[in-house]
Amino acid sequence: MTKLEVALALAVFALVALLVVLVIVLRRSQLERRAALASRAAALDARERVAELAAGNERIRILREMHDVIAHSLAIMIAQADGGSYVVADQAAAKRALTTIAETGRAALADTRRILGILRHGEPDDPVLAPAGDGRIDDLVAQARAAGVEVSLVRVGESRPLPSGTQMAHYRICQEALTNVMKHAGTGARVTITESWRAEDLALTITDAGGDRGSVVALDGEPLAALGLGLVGMRERAELVGGSCQAGPTEDGYQVRAVLPFRLPGEETE
Questions:
Q1: Hey, CA dihedral for 248, 252, 253, 254, is it positive or negative?
Q2: Which residues does 176 contact at the CB level (< 8 Å), separation at least 6?
Q3: Which of 13, 87, 134, 222 is the most exposed place for a label (fewest CB within 10 A)?
Q4: How far apart are CA 174 and CA 238, in angstroms?
Q5: ∠ CA 156-71-61, rounded to 5°
């Protein structure tokens, strides 16, 4: 083999080797690019799923608020309508009952429209979902009294500002408890709401002594009847802020007990 042939053979071998290397590098680059694209797609998919989950949770939260608003308003309206049938001869009392029904219905309709607006457009700062303080608890008591329920509100200790989620849990638990009284115990029920402001938490007790409650439920044990969404919601609200809620029958009525800590779960102590 001449020197020229050897040189050509080496050149061809080098070109083939270079081509093989280029093919390997290109293939590896393609695989790496595909892996990167797949990883990016997976990350985007994960973010989308997280976003969808968050949106779904937000919708559930909003629908829970809608349930509480509508259930409480309907309980007041039904209580007033039932009571109105006994005061037909008393025009002033009948007028007050009808006025309460109309005002409650308008307020519930307005709240429902605002909540539906949030559900469609995502406006989390709407006042319907805003935290509620002691003043709103007083409003709940006034509404229940207007519906014919005898309510006593007892505050023990010095109240203090609560985190927004805890404020909402406080309000909704009281609201749901009063709603259940009007639905099951009747307008002649006697209710005592006790707020015990302690060093680390708010202990809330709502006790009623009323008429026939029908089916009763114990949140902290096996259900004695079909568990209502409102009662489940009370427990969930308390647990979301690191607290607890139990409910069950007493000798002459029903009692809801909740403990709501001042610090949210995961919040560092000072």
A1: negative
A2: 68, 71, 72, 230, 231, 233, 234
A3: 222
A4: 12
A5: 80
Q: Render pLDDT for 221-258 as a digit per residue (tens, 0 to 9).
A: 443 343 455 778 888 889 888 999 999 888 888 899 99
Retrieve residue 54's tokens: 């968050």
Question: Phi/psi at 255 (nearest 5 deg)?
Answer: -140, 135
How far is the C-alpha of 63 from the C-alpha of 193, rounded, in Å?
A: 26
C-beta of residue 256 within 8 angstroms of C-beta of residue 243: no
pTM of the model: 0.58
Give 87-133 as a DSSP string.
Answer: -TT-HHHHHHHHHHHHHHHHHHHHHHHHHHHHHHH--TT-GGGS---
Residue-wise pLDDT tens digits, 140-185: 898 888 877 889 999 999 988 888 888 888 988 998 888 888 777 7
71 CB-near residues (< 8 Å, 6+ apart): 176, 179, 230
Alpha-carbon distance 70 to 18, whole Å?
76
d(CA 129, CA 50): 23
